[in-house]
Known about the structure:
By secondary structure, the protein is of the alpha/beta class. The protein is built from nine helices and ten strands. The mean pLDDT is 89. It is globular, with a radius of gyration of 17 Å. The strands form three sheets. A six-stranded mixed β-sheet has the order 1-9-8-7-6-3, with helices on both faces. The two termini are 32 Å apart.
Amino acid sequence: MTNKRFGNYISSNFDIHEFGNASAILKYDHPNEYNDILSSLNNFTLNKSHLIVSGGRRSKIPPMIEDPLLENDWVEKNFNINISLDGEQKKIETHKIDCFKNKIGFEVEWNNKTEFYDRDLSNFRVLHSLGALNVGIIVTRSDELNDLFKDLGIYAKYGQSTTILSKLLFKVSSGALGGCPLIVFGIKKNSYKSNS
């Protein structure tokens, strides 16, 4: 059912995993955000020129996915949480969500340390428990891209110690998400364009 909710292009170019009936919540309770996400992912291609860029520059891949959302009134968002513990007020600031709109949180983890997954899942779990988030979404890279990176001679730049789909799914299956509905999109080799 999940793949039918996202159409042929997205299903062919991304591994899709969902938890907590997240795709139904997104599609039927948040149709505008659902359409924004469809538009962004349907227009994504993994370009060779973006993969082989040298130096310490920020990858162009996350902005290709996030910028269309930010242009549609999604925002970077921090939450300030106030709690009372034995009468003493405590302030907690959450980590920034890269793209947020109408209780939908969206993160792209392309080539970060896997601890970023812990941060994202914890953030989603806490915000969902407080009623501030209905669905979390993470876009990352599928394990099958490792073969492509080896062919291009850039595997050392990515490797197994960075954010990759299998590590995220392991963390989710270990309970790191709590009860927050989540959709994970893993970028597949099908999205790769060698001439761009």
